[in-house]
Amino acid sequence: MADTITVYGHRVRQARTIRQSPIKPLAQTLGLTPSSWTALERSTTTQLPRLQLRVLATALRFPAEFFQSAPGLPIHRGSLLLRAKKTIKAAEVEALTAFAEMAYELLAALGKHATQPPVRLPRVRPDTTPEEAARLTRAALDLPEDEPIAHVIHAAERGGIPVVVAEVGMPDAKHDAFSVWVGEFQEQPLVVTRPVNSWERTRWSVAHELGHLVLHRGVVEGDAEDEANRFANEFLLPSRMLALEWPEVVTLSTLMPLKQRWQISLAALIMHGSANGLLERRRVEGLFKQLSARRDPNTGVTWKVQEPGWAEWQPERPRLLAVMAERGMEQVPSASLFTSLSGGWAEDLMEQVVAGQRPAPAVVRALARQARADAAPADNVVAFRRA
User: Fold this and answer.
1) Angle, CA of 264, 152 and 221, to the nearest 5°
2) How many degrees, rounded to 5, is the angle at CA 81 between CA 80 and CA 82?
3) Nearest to 203 by CA among 145, 268, 146
4) How far is Cα 201 from Cα 206, in angstroms, rounded to an integer?
5) What is this structure's pTM?
6) DSSP code of residue 81
7) pLDDT per residue as tens digits for the range 224-247
8) Which pLDDT tens digit goes with each residue over 98-121?
């Protein structure tokens, strides 16, 4: 038995950053100096004593095999497109980068068993406005301009944009969602969002990230967040329909039918109406003051934090990763399955990924089994339908 094991430095960095563990105490645990630990992370491979590897795996709560498996393509943290507060810390960005690398490795592994839907996002010119980009995206995803989007995440995944819902072990996280182009040629889009109990916030966050993917591919210039905001509002409720259905007298009460029909928040409606010249600045300020002043009679929370109707629908959840496992591998998605496929990423992380997926109804599973039984042997292509 060899006294040393080959360990990949990038794997060490991935595990440490996704756990948001400081270097100094970890280095001390392994009997290393902080500079030696940094050298370990920066190395392609290092020979590590077997006992040190066990200590490393225990300290970071990862299987020892993970550090011995070759990593996939790295993602530069500057390529992440974040819907985040300005106070987000570098350590959180590092953790999210590692999580995106994990998600891509899992997606690539599942892709060996089932082909995901092709990516259908428009290529836009640098001078394309967010509103025009949103309209082009609706068309690319076969979404009618005059109808609400029934399920934003389903529409995205049907268009080849996988969505992962997970907390990433960060209860005090400053981000709501992020997106990134991954792959050797940055050909694969990916959206990650935190699990929140607000259906409107979930829909808007995913629409916002679609805006980043379409508008800011490769380079981010100007006010990217404002552009993604405008894209999200237009994507969820096209301006032409906004003008047609806009109430004659604008109050929070008269905006509620629009909110419920198009499933978009009052706050977003106010900003969307303002951008389209339907509201004067003073009226916008007045409506936002009312959102801050009014409270839910049951919880005491202001409408600015939790709008009326927040519990009318369940927050949307994705299905694509689960479908690829079910139809491509004929297995029920599980943390252990995803861990084994992805080269040993920790099961507690994969549990979050699995928990964030929408389960398939029993009828759909039965039909899928029957379809597989009736079909001739062929490549497993995911015909992604709403379940």
Assistant:
1) 80
2) 105
3) 268
4) 9
5) 0.89
6) E
7) 899 999 999 999 999 999 999 999
8) 999 999 999 999 999 999 999 999
